[in-house]
Amino acid sequence: MASPQVRLSTVPAPRPARPRRTEKRRPGSLWYALHLPQLQALPESRRRQYLLALAGLMEACSSDIGLHETALVCEVRSALRYFGGIEAIHEKLSGAIGRQLREWELPEDLSHAAAPTMTGSLLLARAGGGKAVYRRENLHTALQGLPVAVLQSDREQGRRLHNMGIRYLGDLWRLPVGGLVTRFGSDFVDQLDRALGKTPEAARKYVAPPSFRGKFELPAESADLGRLLPAAGELLKRLCEFLVKRDLATGRLEFSLLHEEREATAVRIELRRPGRSREHFLMLLQTRLGELELPAPVIALRLAVSRFDAYLDRDLQLLRNDKNSCDDRGVDHLLEQLQARLGESQVRGIEAVADHRPEYASRDFDHAEGGETGPDTPVAGLARPLWLLREPRRLACRDGQPLYHGPVTLVSGPERIESGWWSGDDMRRDYYVGEEENGCRLWVYRERDGGRHWYLHGYFA
Questions:
Q1: 258 or 375: whose pLDDT is higher?
Q2: Eight-state DSSP code of residue 211
Q3: DSSP β-ladder status, 362-366 and 65-67
């Protein structure tokens, strides 16, 4: 009898489990705070101006900067290895900021600190600074010994804290949260939570003002201004792309024509209304270059723009009626072309002045400076000619009727003007609208004292 066959199956031995990789925890933010107590005595507008200027200096070490009442805070975790530690960053920033404070004739008192939260770094800096806390779990220990004055509470809260015997932040953290909210409010407790990183922080971020600088080097020096236009067109193309991305416009362009061994030739273009049309910019530049004499060949062009405005497109109207719409951009472009060809000071505007005397009721002004007349400036409601004579012309008179190329018929009037007695230029006149036989309308007046002569003062259309 045959023995039964037995099949043996081999089961592979289980492979040893691979050890799980322990993911490295990415370090959080590290905020560097710079406390400037000397700014507290300044007016709010001046303090804001100084903080913005100092924030610009902080951009050398960080791109994430926050503004506070008398302090600046920036994120420096990613810059520690590059600069060599927090003290190297402080040395770099304190040197630049100290020089700026000396220029403003302010004390150089400043204190710094670093912590994983913005509020925590601010509290450490207000307490005297010089301390750096790199890990969030160490914040409680570092902050609990700080005096409660670093919270910058109002006078009533400070009195309550003193009466309760609370001198340090650690004393507050030993009290029930509900009681603190009842006595001091939720904002007070939120500040403590933000310092420890328990609640998110909102920062007033610093945004650097826009600035554009471009340069185009020519392949060969050229004294032909016409050959500079393609290079200028490329710079203007870059500028317009810059403006479109930021939804901005500009009213001042500063070109510099660079020479080999001479100072650069400056060409400035002023616009009456900010815009961002490359074709219009290029046309104005071409007009200016046509009137320019170069002292030497040009090797490069440079364009700088530092003044920007919000872009307003007058074509984007929700309800537009072409018959009634009034678009004065064509007038602005014409005036800008005239300024580019004749010079900025040669094209002037006219504005009304609140004075009854016709000689002083208007004045001319430079478009670059702008007029002072606002929408509420009173203007005479009666008929006024557009063309006033520089000096009134005395008219002959026959039978009490003024003569100018013939008899002048008085159509309307009189309008009596008596003014100027306070300035020594006393004026007492009766004005009339007169009409000649050919239909020409004149503005005439008769003196109310002296010889009571007739004068021609202006022409209507």
A1: 258
A2: -
A3: unpaired
